[in-house]
Structure formats: structure tokens, C-alpha cells
């Protein structure tokens, strides 16, 4: 956390120096603040957001001159989409399913105003559905969650949406479990202390909260597979089959599951040139080094998959870059 704060201050200082570098142009070149709503600090969104924020901030001749980007912890996908729609944030990370529902006014956003200005900067990486259980809880299937103490994440997160869909595919609702509403960090602590049997988490593996838990507590990942999962995949096209390899988490065997895409989204109201320059900085060689070396999931953030599984339109600035780069034809 300390190193991130230091780098963020460096980003601010660098951008301000650029803005004030020429006499008489300080006001004309005032820094543009670009927040990135992420998720809980124990998940994957937060560290990835920190890497990207540092990469695109204009400092040391790198990033986007005049831009100060910051990664902001939040309640996750739904909260980030709402913040963008309400003008409280310039951008944020979200699951592709949540973005689609917000844009179309369906699913979780049924009966609510559509977030029609929502636009994609990039598809980032697959987000794996984790169903983490204490090994001694003897939970072999989602169906075994009946009567168990299970956290489905906080209201406003993308995880809680998918947890409800998965429970439903196996004939369960929140009324069939002893539901709690915790982020992965607190959920891990509760499971470790014996106060929880299992919890849902959607995010790129390995995630810090689960990795840390596995070093002190015998855990298992519950498979999300079989005819119930197949029906879920056919019903919701934003889901895809996925597998968590063996020993990604200590002592945990290879586990079949499902995933959605993590996306970086913004508003159509953000200037085209600004988003073009931010997108260009995202795929620069300097950013590549930060992503590859900064987090295991960073290696999966690739330009060739940046426009896959979108569900909603690209921002015109991002689209311009991808066409120039040959990613889009």
C-alpha cells in the first residue's frame, strides 16, 4: 500500500510539473484527473487498477502528459458503473455481464434507467468465479451449499449478481443458505475462524485474499460444472467455461468453473482525444512491463483480446486507437 501511495504522489507531482512547465500556460494545461474505480483492496481489480493508473499518469515523460490517474477502492462492478453514470468517476472496472445489463436496462438493472453513455476502453482479462470452501465443510457441489453459511459478497458488487444466478441454476436461492454479505478479505477471515463455510468471489486468479487464506487454512474450490453449469452457459452468453489450474492456491486441485470478462469502462462524455491517448498509453511498451511484472493477471491483459466479448460499444477514442493499431479492421 505504501509503494502505491508513493507512486501516486509521484504521478501527481509529475503531472503538475508538466502543467506548470511553461510560463503563462499553467491554466491552459491544468491536469486532467482520471479516476479508475476498482474493487476491494483484497481483490484483483485494485492492484491492476494501481498498475494502470501509474502507467497512464503523465510523469517522467511517460504516460499521458497532463493526466493524473488514481485507482480508487470501491464496492466493485455495479458501484463503478453507477459512479460513471452519475458523473462521480471518470472510469472503472466492471464485469462484462454487469456492463451489458446497465447499458440495456436488463438483468440487475431491470426497471432502472439505462446507463446508455457507458463505453468500453478495453476488455482486460477473464474473471473466474471462485466458490471457496473450508475443506472440512464437505461441500462438493453448489447444491451442497443448502443450509450452509455462505457469503455472496456485498450488495453493489458483480459477484453477488453471479452468485444468485449460479445458486438459481442449482435450484437454490439466498433463502436456502445462511447468507452473509462480505468482501473476499473479511470473508476469508470469517472462514478461517470457522464462522463461514464458503464464499463466492469473481476475479482473476490468483487473488490475494484466497492465496493468503490457503497458506493457513485447508480450503477447496467447489466445481461449477455439469448440466446445471451447461444450462447457465447457454442461457447467459457472457459466461464461459474456465478452469483454475492445480496449486494456483496451495493444496487446491484443478477445478472446473466459469468466468466473465473484466472490462475497463468510461463514459461517452469523456473527450475522444483524451480516451485515445489513454488507450494508447495502456498499450505502450512501458505499460507492458508494468503489467507483466506487477501482477500474475497482468500478463493476460493483451491488445489482441482488448476488443473481444464487448457487449457494449467501444468509446470512440479507444476505437480510433484500435483501428489505427490494426486490432479492429
TrEMBL record:
<dbReference type="Pfam" id="PF16868">
    <property type="entry name" value="NMT1_3"/>
</dbReference>
<feature type="signal peptide">
    <location>
        <begin position="1"/>
        <end position="28"/>
    </location>
</feature>
<protein>
    <submittedName>
        <fullName>TAXI family TRAP transporter solute-binding subunit</fullName>
    </submittedName>
</protein>
<dbReference type="InterPro" id="IPR011852">
    <property type="entry name" value="TRAP_TAXI"/>
</dbReference>
<dbReference type="InterPro" id="IPR006311">
    <property type="entry name" value="TAT_signal"/>
</dbReference>
<keyword id="KW-0732">Signal</keyword>
Amino acid at each position: 500500500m505504501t509503494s502505491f501511495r508513493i507512486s501516486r504522489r509521484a504521478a501527481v507531482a509529475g503531472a503538475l510539473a508538466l502543467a506548470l512547465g511553461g510560463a503563462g500556460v499553467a491554466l491552459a494545461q491544468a491536469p486532467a484527473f482520471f479516476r479508475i474505480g476498482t474493487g476491494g483492496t483484497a481483490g484483483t481489480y485494485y492492484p491492476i487498477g494501481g498498475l494502470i493508473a501509474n502507467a497512464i499518469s503523465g510523469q517522467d515523460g511517460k504516460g499521458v502528459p497532463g493526466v493524473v490517474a488514481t485507482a480508487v477502492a470501491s464496492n466493485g462492478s455495479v458501484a463503478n458503473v453507477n459512479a460513471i453514470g452519475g458523473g462521480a468517476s471518470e472510469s472503472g472496472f466492471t464485469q462484462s455481464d454487469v456492463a451489458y445489463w446497465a447499458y440495456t436496462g436488463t438483468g440487475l438493472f431491470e426497471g432502472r434507467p439505462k446507463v446508455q453513455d457507458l463505453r468500453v476502453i478495453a476488455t482486460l482479462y477473464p474473471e473466474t468465479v471462485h466458490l471457496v470452501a473450508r475443506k472440512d465443510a464437505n461441500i462438493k457441489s453448489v447444491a451442497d451449499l443448502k443450509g450452509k453459511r455462505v457469503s455472496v459478497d456485498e450488495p453493489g458488487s458483480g459477484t453477488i449478481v453471479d452468485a444468485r444466478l449460479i445458486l438459481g441454476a442449482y435450484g437454490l436461492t439466498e433463502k436456502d443458505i445462511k447468507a452473509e454479505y462480505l468482501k473476499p478479505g473479511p470473508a476469508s477471515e470469517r472462514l478461517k475462524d470457522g464462522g463461514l463455510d464458503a464464499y463466492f468471489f469473481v476475479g482473476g486468479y490468483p487473488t490475494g485474499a484466497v492465496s493468503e487464506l490457503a497458506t493457513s487454512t485447508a480450503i477447496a474450490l467447489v466445481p461449477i460444472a455439469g448440466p446445471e453449469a451447461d444450462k447457465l452457459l447457454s442461457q447467459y452468453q457472457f459466461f464461459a467455461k474456465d478452469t483454475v489450474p492445480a496449486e494456483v492456491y496451495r493444496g487446491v486441485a484443478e477445478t472446473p468453473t466459469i468466468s466473465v470478462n473484466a472490462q475497463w469502462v468510461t463514459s461517452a462524455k469523456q473527450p475522444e482525444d483524451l480516451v485515445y491517448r489513454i488507450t494508447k498509453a495502456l498499450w505502450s511498451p512501458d505499460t507492458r512491463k508494468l503489467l507483466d511484472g506487477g501482477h500474475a493477471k497482468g500478463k493476460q491483459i493483451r491488445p489482441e483480446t482488448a476488443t473481444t466479448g464487448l457487449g457494449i460499444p467501444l468509446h470512440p477514442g479507444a476505437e480510433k486507437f484500435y483501428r489505427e493499431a490494426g486490432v479492429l479492421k
